[in-house]
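User: Need the bound-state model for PPS:
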Amino acid sequence: MNDKTVPTYAYLKHPVTGEICVYPGDFEQKHCESALQYKAKPNDVFVCSYSKCGTTWLQNIIWLILHKGEQIRGDIRKQIPMLEFDGDEKLNQIDDSKFPRVVKTHFKLKWVPQHPKAKYIYITRNPKDAMVSYYYHCKGFVSHFDCEDLDFNKLFDLYVKGDVEFWGYFDHVTEWYQKRNETNVLFLLYEDLKVDPKGEILKIAEFLGKNYFESLLVENGKLLQQVIQDSSFSVMQTASAELISLPRPKSLPFIRKGVIGDWNNHLSSEQSKIMEELIKEKGDPSGWSSLWDKHENVWSI
Ligand code: PPS
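Assistant: Bound-state model below.
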């Protein structure tokens, strides 16, 4: 019988290289193989992240910008498929003749299909908060992880070792951070989006294309205000159950708390220190460890 105090994972194999990718436990080899067949198209927009770093928020913002303020209706995965779960067939069913196809993925960089004209928007978040959010993620998605009695401390140990989905946060961020200056990559912080949604939304629109940027500003920035409002935490939390149709307990909404620093309520001082050492070890060589220096409230207790 599975140990219900830790998440269950599926170890799926790259059909060519034989490398292993860690998926939530209820996924099968066919999902991984289908994902790897997808060929990126020139006008695709990839929303890339490690889990729980603000992906859904970013997806919603991109959608609102591309669709001139028209909201996502129903399950977000129907409009914005997830590469590793929905695969080649579902992605190719999306009609991209009017609007670019938007693709969500948590895959490590080298598994993400590349096209020189496609756009890649990466979002990250401080790993202490991402870990806490991941705890509630696993607790809420019993069908994926089969861990009704999830133990926070055990999950923490797995998280810092990278023994969690998609091989963990730390290498994921390192690889994407090194790619951040390429012209078709935009690298964002969850915390920047929290502090300055207007500035970050304009930055995203500019990256998507001059026409999107300009249309946000016409009529005194009417569309910009609408995008800010419809991607706000309160609006998205109200729509949470509709956006994410996979069942979750009512007490654990997918759009949960949406704050900076919730780790203060969960991590022991020893766990906090372990994270800090890891951030230094993994983030100092490429420089991503200083990403949050401008946000005093991220690390303060
Ligand atoms: S997933 O499952 O990996 O795609 O999750 P992801 O969307 O990356 O991250 C979920 C966390 O993002 C928070 N969230 C938001 N915060 C602020 N504003 C808005 N609009 C918003 N939308 C989603 C969500 O609440 C999760 O964070 P926590 O800390 O658990 O609340």
